[in-house]
Amino acid sequence: MEEVIERLNAALEKVVANKGAPGPDRQSVGDVRKHWPQLGPALASALRDGTYQPGDIRRVWIPKSGGGERGLGIPNVVDRVVQEAVRLVLEPLYEPTFHPSSHGFRPGRSCHTALAEARGYVGEGYHFVVDMDLSKFFDRVHHQRLMARLAQRVSDRPLLVLIGRMLKAKVVMPDGVRVSTEEGVPQGGPLSPLLSNVVLSELDDELARRGLRFVRYADDCNIYVRSERAGKRVMDSVVAFIERRLRLQVNEAKSAVARPETRHFLGFRLRPQEGGPPEVLLSERSEKRLRERVRELTPRAGGRSLEAVIHPINVYLAGWAGFFRICTVGIERVLQTTDAHIRRRLRAIVLRHWKTKRTTARRLIRLGVKPKTAWRRVYEGRKSWWALSHDPAVDRGLRNAYFAERGLTSLLERFRRTWEAIIAPAQLTLALEYERS
């Protein structure tokens, strides 16, 4: 426990850097940071004498990209500091024991490293994937099995008691009802990702013992095999292990044995290529989520200025392009369509700002549209702002340069710059290595 106490200050800095919303006690990160000179010593004393009790966890629901909702648990900021301190103690103990094919929530690993390993297996001729979806994994972790796994390496009894209390913290639902926690590891706390890897490392060890080629990122696990028949055999045996041994549940509706180019894995699809490395494609789910997010970021109501709308779009697109930059084919169409859709939604916002048809026609004339065309197109019929946003006259007046001058960055141009500077050289190197092998 003394190791945890020694790391409280470092843990506070991590929590402050991550920001995050307040927990049920409504104390913000800034509040805790401000009062830390008083809170820190009191917290250390409570941990040392065993009187520390974690507070409740606030449950919020967020939409999942594949449909439905995911429950997140938001602990109080002080409890997040304690969880982070525990993580700092446990991670060096467990990290060397985790399998190399586990990529989620680990230092130096990411979705991109997971995809690179999966791409290697497909390139070696493993053209079928056993795609397993664990149903509500974080909500169904068996506490006794988890604590037994931890006790195999952690000899500090007070630390184990502390972790047990964290797992049992009550959850405050959105309607205010407090619910006891009998199983599960709430998503949202700093310690949950490490505990999930502790649980699923048992699955990794079993797959490795069987000599299977697999890639796991958190609760997303893909096993690569050479034939559909082998895949079905692996699916049946691994599902039995997960449900009987780990006491978790596999979602049969979302699990399948299929070609990798038909399955969504971390936002991508992999397609074998004759005589070269597998192609990396954007998944349909990722494309759909991109459209939905653009729609959320460009509401026509709200009264914000055009620049205030463009800034969060640029921030989102920068992150999106950075993550999906490893796509090798088929993405330019998506980027072009997205750029055009963003500009159309921005045109609708500008038209709404102009309010009247008279003002709209005059503004279009100032932007270079012929007067006769502007008056006719604006007053022709009873067009909505959305319908008018794609009118040829509006397209000519509010051309691409109009939005570029106001700061909008083209997703296609951003992607091309990244491709030329980073991805193309890496793809060439990979192709040469593939030919030599």
Give a description of the structure.
The chain is of the alpha+beta class and 437 residues long. The strands form three sheets. Strands 2-1-4-5 form a four-stranded mixed sheet. Helix content is 55%, strand content 12%. A hairpin with a 5-residue loop joins strand 4 and strand 5. The longest helix has 26 residues, at 411-436.
What features would you highlight for this structure?
four-stranded antiparallel sheet, alpha+beta, 20 helices, 437 residues, 10 strands, single chain, 55% helix
The tally of strands reads 10
What's the overall average pLDDT, rounded? 89
Give the spatial strand order of the biggest sheet: 2-1-4-5
Strand content: 5-15%
Low-confidence stretches: none
- Give the overall shape: globular
How many helices? The count is 20
Oligomer: single chain
Return the structural class. Answer: alpha+beta
Summarize the biggest pleated sheet: 4 strands, mixed
Radius of gyration: 26 Å
Question: What series of H and E elements makes up the topology?
Answer: HHHHEEHHEHHHEEHEEHEEEHHHHHHHHH
Helix content class: 55-70%
Cα end-to-end separation: 51 Å
